[in-house]
Amino acid sequence: MNEFQVAIIGGGPAGYTAAECAGKAGLSVVLFEKKNVGGVCLNEGCIPTKTLLYSAKIFDYTKHGKQYGITVPESSFDLKQIVMRKAKVVRKLVLGIKARLKAENVTIVEGEAQILDAHHIQCKEETYSCENLVICTGSDTFVPPIPGVSEVDYWTHREALDNKEVPASLVIVGGGVIGMEFASFFSSLGVQVTIVEMLDKIIGPMDRELSAMLQAEYAKRGIRFLLSAKVVGISQDESGFTVSYENAEGSASVTAEKLLMSVGRRPVTTGFGLENLQLELNGRNIKVDEHMQSSVPGVYVCGDLNGVSLLAHTAVREAEVAIHHIIGQDDRMSYRAIPSVVYTNPEIAGVGLTEEEAEKKGIAHKVVKLPMAFSGRFVAENEGVNGVCKLVLAEDDTVLGAHILGNPASELIVLAGMAIEKGMKVNEWKQYVFPHPTVGEIFREF
Ligand SMILES: Cc1cc2nc3c(=O)[nH]c(=O)nc-3n(C[C@H](O)[C@H](O)[C@H](O)COP(=O)(O)OP(=O)(O)OC[C@H]3O[C@@H](n4cnc5c(N)ncnc54)[C@H](O)[C@@H]3O)c2cc1C
User: What's the CA-to-centroid distance between 46 and ligand 1, angstroms?
Assistant: First the structure.
C-alpha cells in the first residue's frame, strides 16, 4: 500500500517542485512535511519578507510623493495590519501549492520522516517504500556561539516577521541579504537601525561598488553601519541589548531595544536518519552530480540541504533536474547563472561573475557600466535616485556577469542570466525588440 515510485522529504520549494513535477510525469509520489507545506520560502522567508517590504515601500512613497507632485498630508502605518496581510498572503500561496499537489495526485504525509535506508522511510509508525528518494529538508538559522548569545532573548527572522510592536531601535548582527532586507523594512518604519558586520562590506558576495552605493543610500536614510566589526559579546538588561564588538580602532559596543541575529543559514543534516545513507561529502556540502544524484544511486539531494546555493530559485531548478533524471529526460544543473537579489529599495541584483571574482580567478575580462538614467522609464520613475548597470565581459564581449542597482533589478536580472547561460555576446541583445519604455532597455544601450 505504502509503495511509491518517488518519496520526497521536505515540502519547501525543492520538495513541492519535485512532487509536482514527478506527479505531472505520472509517477506515484509521497511527500513528507513536518511543519508547513511551502517550507521556509513561503512561510517564513522569501514571500513574507517581500510582503512586508512592499508595505514599507508604499509607506516610503507616501513620504516622498512630493517629488512626483503628489502630496500626502499625513501618512501612517499599522504594523499589526501589515503583519496580518503578510499572514494572508502566505496562507493563500500555501493553499495554492497544496491544490497544485492534489491535482497531480501527490500523497502528502504530515509528519517528521526518518530515513531507514535508500528505499524505506518511516513516518508516524508507518513505513513507506520508494524506488527513488529526493531529500529536500532545507536549512536553518545559524547562530554563532558568541559569548552571552544563548542567554538573551534575541530575534531570528521568525520573530522579526511576526513582531507587531515598533521598537525604537534595532541592532542587526549580520549585514547579508536577510539582515539588509530587515534593516530596510524597519528603517522605513522609523526604527533606528544599526548593522554590525564582520566583513568590510555589506551583502557579502555582491558587486563591491554597487554594495557600497547601496550602503551609502541607506546611511543617508539613517542606518548606522559598523563594518569590519567582530561581535565578541552580547548581553541583555532592562535597557535592551548590548552588542560588544572589536574593530581596527579597538573595542566598543552598541545598545538597542531589539536584537536580530542574521549571520547566515546552515543545512540541517541531522535528526532524520540521513547518516544511514552514508552519503559522500564534497567539503562541507553533500556531493551531488549534475543530475542532483548523490553518491547513492536513486537518492537525490536538492535545495538548501546540499549547501550549494541556499536560494529558493536554485532549489526549484535542482528539483526539476532531479525528477527529469528519474524519468530519463536529459537535463543538467548549471550554477553559472544563479541570480542573487536583495529586495531593498532600491533593489540590487547580480548574476554570474563579479569584477572581484574575475580578478581573483585570473579571468581576462573588461567592465562596462551605464547609469540607469540611460533608461527613460527609470528616469520617469526614480526621482533623485541613482542606479547603475554593470557588465563583466570576456575579451570577445561574451557576457560573464551583470550587476544592477536600481528598481526593478529583480525583474531585469533574468535577462542577463539567460545571456550568460546561452553564452551570448553583449551586442546580441540588440537583435531583440524590447518594449519601450522599459528599464530593461538598458541592456540594449551597451
Ligand atoms: C528571511 C528569509 C528570506 C529569504 N528570502 C529569500 C529570497 O528572497 N529569495 C530566495 O531565493 N531565497 C530566500 N530565502 C531562502 C529560501 O527560503 C530557501 O533557499 C528555500 O526555502 C530553500 O528551499 P528548500 O526546499 O531547500 O528548503 P526549505 O524551504 O527549508 O524547506 C524544507 C522543508 O523540509 C521540512 N522538513 C525538514 N526535515 C523534515 C523531515 N525529517 N520530515 C519532514 N519534513 C521535513 C521542513 O519543515 C521544511 O518545510 C530566504 C530565507 C529566509 C530565512
Answer: 9
